[in-house]
Amino acid sequence: MLKNYSTQREKTERITEKTLIIGIDIASRRHYAQALTWRKVEVTKGLYFYNERQGFEEFLEWVNHAKQKMGASNIIVAMEPTGHYYFALEEYLEKLGIEVVIVNARDVNQMGQYYHNHRSKSDPRDAMLIGYLCSEGRYAVTTRPKEGPYAELRELTVRREQLVKKQMASINELHCLFTQLFPEHKQIKESGISEALLVLFLELQTLEAIQAAGWEGLYDILKRHKKYQIGKDKVKQIHALSISSIGIKRKIKATQTVLTSVIEEYRFYQQQIKAIDDDIIAQLNEMDVAKKLMAIPGIGPIITATFLAEVGDIANFKSAKQILKLAGYAICTNESGNHKGTRRTSKMGRKRLKKIIYQASLATISNNDDINQIYMYYTQERKEPLKKMKAVIAIGCKLVRIFFSLLKYNHHYDGQKMLSDIKRPQGQMA
């Protein structure tokens, strides 16, 4: 990345009559490139090239030929951020000092209908449309961290999210099995599956075996697993529930095998997530910016790590609005003449960044007295109170502005300064 052009004017002025625009349609195996002038005129015939070193070298030779033919002084390569398939080409070009920008796939689709009045799709057509968008300044510089602590956090947080999804699938399977075999398990732990119950089923496998073991036998088993040790009263409760249980008494051995498999799968993902969390915390301990965010009550290491992984170096942004736009929190209006539609947030943006901002809102509303006061003001004290969801989103936008201020200007979190934003009638206590 050479420069973060943030405004439409900067992006448009970046493209001059001496700029060779390369639009590339990215695919998993083979890419297609088109070379255009700033007036959207094709310079030379397009090129198919493979996603490997020989293909990249053929592409560079083709680019140099187009550059000489046009008499260009600089090159800008535009591509769709198609999954992970563009990573290798992007890094290869950036190491050669060639500027790479990305365009939105939605814009490519809409541009095709605008120019050609039909929905047909092909590699040459898409590459041409990507070049058109770039010539009009409708592109962005990727802020995805590629190396350093931010890249480390990104790898870890992405993997953690994948593991959490897989663990949730295991939890759902466990609930399904226990609902049939031991429906009373919710009385042991209402919020979810009891770890002690998992140990007992992993060792004894059936409800009948748990009944036969007696509460003393169950207690001895749990004592051997000190991590899951619980009191005698709880063990007696488990045993009493097993005796009065209405669970299905299955004699199918496969049911025991499946239950054991799911329990081991759940515990495997639990161990993997813990290992990832340890690496995340170790990485955050080496970053001063992370300590600033975690100084905010309610903001923990996972929220901090995910936010930093998605945003990267704060130097890439000139204002908090850019981060909100990146997350899809830009406000969209629907107005025409006398019609005043509902204002809402954009449904676009980075899903992971939007999700973590929302989670940060909920966490701080619950654990940060200052944020909770602002939330109560939004929902109850304002002249026109906000609905709860809108208030949560407003808190999220405020948190992004706070994060930006802490990271960009090296400020420290000050809850009282934040509360000064609340404008109450004179004489009313804060």
3D structure, described in words:
With 430 residues, this protein is α/β, with parallel strands linked by helices. It has three domains: 8-135, ATPase, nucleotide binding domain (Nucleotidyltransferase, domain 5, 2-Layer Sandwich), CATH 3.30.420; 152-281, Helix Hairpins (Orthogonal Bundle), CATH 1.10.287; 288-419, no CATH class. The protein contains 17 helices and nine strands. A five-stranded mixed β-sheet has the order 3-2-1-4-5. The chain has a two-stranded antiparallel ribbon with strand order 6-9. The protein has a two-stranded antiparallel sheet with strand order 7-8. Helix 7 crosses helix 8, helix 8 packs antiparallel against helix 9 and helix 15 packs across helix 16 (388-408). The longest helix is centred in the middle third of the chain and has 33 residues, at 149-181.
First-last Cα distance: 46 Å
DSSP helix fraction: 55-70%
Extract low-pLDDT stretches.
none
Number of helices: 17
Q: Any idea how many domains?
A: 3
> Which strand order do you get reading across the main beta sheet?
3-2-1-4-5
Main sheet summary: 5 strands, mixed
Mean pLDDT: 87
Question: Strand share of the residues?
Answer: 5-15%
* Strand runs, count: 9
Whole-number radius of gyration?
28 Å
Shape: globular
> What is the SS-derived class?
alpha/beta
Order of helices and strands: HEEEHEHEHHHHHHHHHHEEEEHHHH
